[in-house]
Amino acid sequence: MEKKIAVLAGDGIGPEVMKEALRILDKIAIKFGHKFQFKSALIGGAAYDKYGEHFPQETKDICKNCDAILFGSVGGPVDKLTESKWANCERNALLGIRKEFNFHANFRPARIYKSLSNICPLKKEIIEKGIDLLVVRELIGGIYFGLHEMKEIEGKRTAKDVMEYNEDQIRIIAHDGFQAAQKRRKKLTSIDKANVLDCSKLWRQIVDEVAKEYPEIEYCHMLVDNCAMQLIKDPSQFDVILTENTFGDILSDEAAVLPGSLGLMPSASLNKDGFGLFEPSGGSAQDIAGKGIANPIAQILSAAMMLKYGFGMIQESEDIENAVQKTLEDGFRTGDIYEEGMKKVGTSEMGDEIEKRI
Ligand code: NAD
User: Fold this and answer.
1) For residue 286, which atom of ligand 1 is closest to its CA?
2) Number of domains, the chain
3) For residue 83, how far is the Cα from the chain centroid?
């Protein structure tokens, strides 16, 4: 198969970890007889330096001419976020790209590798049943994309953010959730706040309607506050968690803590045509950028998600996942997941070890 991939490495650790992901893709291409063409483009602060904007037209055009987007991360150091290069960088680049390509669905897996169970912050008896869940989040609706307003009313500064969903937006993400569950352990938990919000009441109605088309999936509803607790008390109960934009943002970050490091967490965002953006869940990690110590696994697993969700290359994707698992079982660790007695490696050595196991 021949595929063109837009490579948007971005800022901070983005370019460092991207380098490792690209060489893993090169190795997969050789092994399986594919041809991957990488088209690099600027995004975030790196784009601002050249174009004075975070998501320039040239980058949009390159993305449009490719089969998928492999994204690194964007954003400046947390103490410099008011400088013009970094102000609103993440919002302009990420919300911009989501909107441009209508990425309505976000998929974030959280899985605990047996060899890393010591770095999971939960107690042994909670994690021994195994944790392997997928958060499916609606990405371009709800409060983040509703009306935002701040003005003075009767002498008081007053702010308003509007949450709105229509049935089509809910239906399409519900199908994504049930279809994801079909490929996994066939269980779905739909999250809402139906005891308070009308958006959530509609959410429940539509999920119930869509569920009729997937009788083989065991599903239930759960309130978001309960879900936040259950993710800590008993995360093994979850397979697919289906939810709207804001709840999904928060719950997927909560779930991201379970494996022990953001450096392990990939994600995928897809539009209706199956075109996707694949990126680590973490940010540009400016605190460790340029030191050669960032964990490339999140970026490498994002490339694996691109193969699976973007190109339907299941075996190729599993080859990468298995190589990552084997590398961890063999004791190789970057600083973020290091434990005594293990072999501490930097970004490129971790890439070497994973590549050797493909
Ligand atoms: P962050 O996710 O960049 O980092 C949080 C912590 O996790 C840091 O201690 C970092 O060192 C660590 N970490 C993250 N990825 C790692 C990896 N691969 N290997 C080892 N450690 C890793 O969040 P932050 O520090 O709050 O934000 C830094 C910048 O990133 C900000 O400008 C923010 O706006 C931006 N950001 C971007 C994205 C994105 O591009 N998708 C997401 C979140 C934050």
Assistant:
1) 28
2) 2
3) 27
Among residues 273, 279, 294, 298, the alpha carbon closest in space to that of 70 is found at 279
Condensed to tens digits (0 to 9), the pLDDT of residues 148-178 reads: 999 999 999 999 999 999 999 999 999 999 9
pLDDT at 116 over 90: yes
Taking only the tens place, the pLDDT of each residue in 282-323 is 999 999 999 999 999 999 999 999 999 999 999 999 999 999
Question: If you measure from the C-alpha of residue 282 to the centroid of ligand 1, how many angstroms do you get, rounded to a whole number?
Answer: 5
**Which residue(s) pair with 136 in the sheet?**
107, 242
Do 267 and 334 share a domain, yes or no? yes
Residue 322 placed within a domain: yes
* Cβ 45 under 6 angstroms from ligand 1: no
Model confidence at 99: pLDDT above 90: no
Domain that holds residue 173: 121-258
Rounded to two decimals, what is the model's pTM?
0.91
**Looking at the predicted structure, is the pLDDT value of residue 95 above 90?**
no
| 74 ligand 1 Cβ < 6 A | yes
Residue 315 is predicted with a pLDDT of 96
Residues with a catalytic annotation lie at 144, 193, 225, 249, 253
Question: How far apart (Å, rounded) are the C-alpha atoms in residues 92 and 286?
Answer: 18
HSE of 148, CA atoms in CB hemisphere, 13 A: 4
The DSSP call for residue 261 is -
Residues 268 and 281 in one domain: yes
pLDDT of residue 183: 86
Among protein residues, the one whose CA lies closest to atom 30 of ligand 1: 283
Distance 283 CA to ligand 1 centre (A): 3
CA angle 182, 186, 189 (to 5 degrees): 110
User: Do 128 and 97 belong to one domain?
Assistant: no
Between CA 161 and CA 110 the distance in angstroms is 30
User: How far away, in angstroms, is 257 Cα from ligand 1 center?
Assistant: 13
* Ligand 1 centroid from CA 280, angstroms: 9
Are residues 251 and 295 part of one domain? no
Cβ 283 under 6 angstroms from ligand 1: yes
E-assigned strand segments in 24-115: 35-40, 68-73, 105-111
